[in-house]
Amino acid sequence: MVRIKSFLKILVIVFFFLILLIFLGEFIFNSIYQFPQKIEYGVTFSPRYAGYLKLDWQKIYIQMLNDLKVKHLRIPSYWDILEPNPGQYDFSETDFMLDEAEKKGARVIMVLGERQPRWPECHVSEWAKRLKLQDRQQKILEFVQKTVERYKDHPAIWAWQIENEPLLRGFGENCGIPDKIFLKKEAILVRSLSDKTIIMTDSGELGFWITPAEFSDVFGTTLYRKVHDRFFGYIIYPLPPYFYSLKSSLVRNIFARSNKKTIIVELQAEPWLASGAFISPEEQTRIFTPENFRDYVNFAKKTGFDEQYLWGVEWWYFMAQQGYPEYLESARVLFK
Questions:
Q1: What's the N-to-C CA distance of the chain in angstroms?
Q2: Which CATH number goes with the domain that contains 294?
């Protein structure tokens, strides 16, 4: 009994020490860090997700550019849509998004490769699923080359993002084992075709960041606050804002000195649904409240990164149509 009490006392002391360390670290960081005077906000837009929400994706895309006046975009190039059959390409979806962005003077990050934003993460054409790994990788390189060659002179594009969280294990469908060697081949290929900035990304909370930062000019972290775990249910990552900046400084100064900066490429601004299945808008507002939206944006401000892309613009418009305009109204404040 005495040993148990002693052990509990030690746990309590360690717990309070950690809490003190976190607050002390945040105080020091806020005192010495040079925060940007202005944060450039952008969004990731997925035609596929807009369609899943039963939205007219072209209408919503135009509305987003005109209404929110978004000037920073991240858009996908889904392999299964752009190359539905071997060697047969249909770039009409991407052409539309890029051309409309150019009309509005928006800057675009185009995502390249097999792994792209939104579920199922790896957007693989049916014909490619049957290929052996080596053959499939060769077809990915051909697809990447075709895409870059088509758009390398497009004035709206300022950067290529190669794959999306390519080293994140255990998440997504149709994804093979993370392959650093192949990722490097993709980077070398893109550099040989274009002089635009190269971005690579990793999970802000679960990734090590080292390899994506080494292979890229700009590193992009995700930032999620409330997620669902199959064992623990909904959890909030117990991380302070300065964790991301400190991690960035360590990785870039020790392992990736040529990397220019870190941006938040995916800032949670919609609910993380437990099963991926659709639930009612009312239930979604309980999982992710308008206050959560504002709190997560304020949290991200404290990281000190000057470029941040919000995740969920399609959902904001969907919720507005369902009678919950608060999310869209909060976004307007950021983009005005």
A1: 62
A2: 3.20.20.80
